[in-house]
Write a structure and sequence with these properties.
Elements (H helix, E strand, L loop, with lengths): L1 E5 L8 H6 L5 E4 L6 H8 L3 E4 L7 H6 L3 E6 L2 E6 L9 H7 L5 E3 L7 E5 L3 E5 L13 E8 L2 E9 L2
Parallel strand pairs: 1-2, 2-3, 5-6, 6-8
Antiparallel strand pairs: 1-9, 4-5, 7-8, 9-10
Length: 158
């Protein structure tokens, strides 16, 4: 199974995301979506699991959870924006969600792919919207196959 991982679109879905996510089976959006239209456009590509972020308004907060827990290809996955932890780190996220094998978060706009405690994959795809904090926009792709550790990569967007 191939996952598209995205966060911090803040109302802007870059056309390049459609190219990167062309063959994904499921999309995880880690919040600060900006507009429900973003989710509609992503749903045209694949099933979407999304959470709200600290800048999302009442409309998105009413229909999305702060934390989503799901299982895909036998992996326990948590998706969160991470702002509830202040400035989230992989270790803090692992402590907050000890049963998760994969943790996807956003908020910092800093792309990150890290193995924590030798078994937990933590990914922040970075901000996919307008560049902020001098960091180029990016998304992530993760390959899941039962019995094999997840394989992930970060993809910088032009």
């Amino acid at each position: 199974m191939r996952l598209g991982v995205i966060s911090d679109t803040h109302g802007l879905l870059r056309p390049e995301v459609f190219d990167v996510f062309q063959q994904v089976d499921h999309i995880l959006h880690a919040g600060d979506i900006g507009s429900p239209q973003i989710l509609i456009e992503l749903e045209a590509l694949a099933r979407v699991t999304a959470v709200y972020g600290n800048t999302d308004g009442p409309e998105l907060r009413a229909r999305l959870p702060q934390v989503a827990e799901l299982e895909l290809d036998g992996f326990a996955i948590v998706v969160t924006h991470g702002d509830q932890l202040g400035h989230p780190t992989p270790d803090a996220l692992h402590a907050a969600f000890p049963r998760a094998e994969i943790i996807v978060y956003g908020h910092t706009h800093k792309p990150l792919l890290k193995l924590v405690d030798r078994t937990v994959t933590v990914m922040n795809p970075g901000g996919a919207g307008r560049p902020r904090f001098g960091i180029a926009p990016s998304v992530g792709v993760m390959e899941l196959e039962a019995g094999i550790p997840p394989r992930g990569r970060l993809v910088r967007l032009p």
